Amino acid sequence: YGNPALKCSIDIDLLIDADQLLAAATILRTNGYRLVAPAKSSDGDLKRWHRGWKESVWRSDETAMQLDLHTRTADNDRLIPNINVRSPRQDVLVGGRITLPTLADGELFAYLTVHGASSAWFRLKWAADFGGFLSGKSGEALEHLYRRSQALGAGRAPGMALLLADRLFETLDRNPDLRGELRRDPEIVRLYRTSLHLLLAGPDEPTASRLGTLPIHMLQLGLLPGPGYMLSEIWRQTRRLFDRPPV
Q1: pLDDT for 170-217, tens place per residue?
Q2: Does 214 lie in the same domain as 122?
Q3: Contacts from 32-36 at CB under 8 Å and sequence distance 24+?
Q4: Residues 42-71: b if buried by 16+ CB within 10 A, e if exposed
């Protein structure tokens, strides 16, 4: 974005090793952050929360800054299982003054597609961010990113995201062969159509109605092929309903 004022963000995502969770929590508390989700929880509650959720939410009362502390990059650990704090990284310039580390492009692409799929891309700003990330990349680079994401275990999420970006921004005009390949996969097309429907459904977000998020939960069942993943995802979603600390 160049100027950070052009991008309004709620939080900062910070990825750590899972075994450093309690140490990181101590550092955050020492620096004035309090735990928002799960709220008023012991260390044991926090560890249990992170078994079902990839992040906990912390907020500074002094600055109002929100920080999401991640111990993995996907809610289901079968997705992108090897993207972690030891993955290849790059430094990015933020606002022309601050340099911060993030994932290298291949890993970042895979992560962004899985992250978007976790909410079925129902907000246009997420798709716009993704389209911006891809805007300067050649057709050959898009091909490389997609193949790399498959090696990293991102499943159908990258194909769905690319078709959505193509619909909104004509991203795959630079690689029509890849567009054709993705369009021939019926499961990828089904996921893409679900996400497009949620994106275009209207001003009310899926979270605003009681069963509005049901299509998102159903979509998540198909992000990887095979019954093993589907069963693990059903178990994960069920466990999150019943095994959570107080919020």
Answers
A1: 999 999 999 999 999 999 999 999 999 999 887 778 877 777 889 999
A2: yes
A3: 32/60, 32/61, 32/62, 33/58, 33/59, 33/60, 33/67, 34/58, 34/59, 34/60, 34/61, 36/66
A4: eeebbbbbbebbbbbbbbeeeeeeebbbbb
Count structural domains, the chain: 2
pLDDT tens digits, 104-135: 999 999 999 999 999 999 988 889 999 999 99
Residue with tokens 């198909």: 222
pLDDT at 246 over 60: no
Q: Specify burial of residue 140 (Cβ count, 10 A radius: 0-12, 13-18, 19+).
A: exposed
Question: Are 150 and 224 found together in one domain?
Answer: yes
Q: What is the DSSP letter of 18?
A: G
Residues 47 and 133 in one domain: no
Decide if 161 contacts 112 (C-beta within 8 A). Answer: yes
- Among candidates 230, 214, 223, which has minimal Cα distance to 187? 223
Phi, psi dihedrals of residue 209, rounded to the nearest 5°: -120, 160
Owning domain of residue 234: 88-247
Give yes or no: residues 190 and 243 share one domain: yes
Query: DSSP code of 211?
Result: T
- Give the angle 122-160-231 at the CA atoms, nearest 5°: 90
Residue 82 placed within a domain: no
**Nearest of 31, 10, 32, 78 to residue 220 by alpha carbon:** 78
User: Residues 95, 166: one domain?
Assistant: yes
Query: Do 51 and 96 fall within a single domain?
Result: no
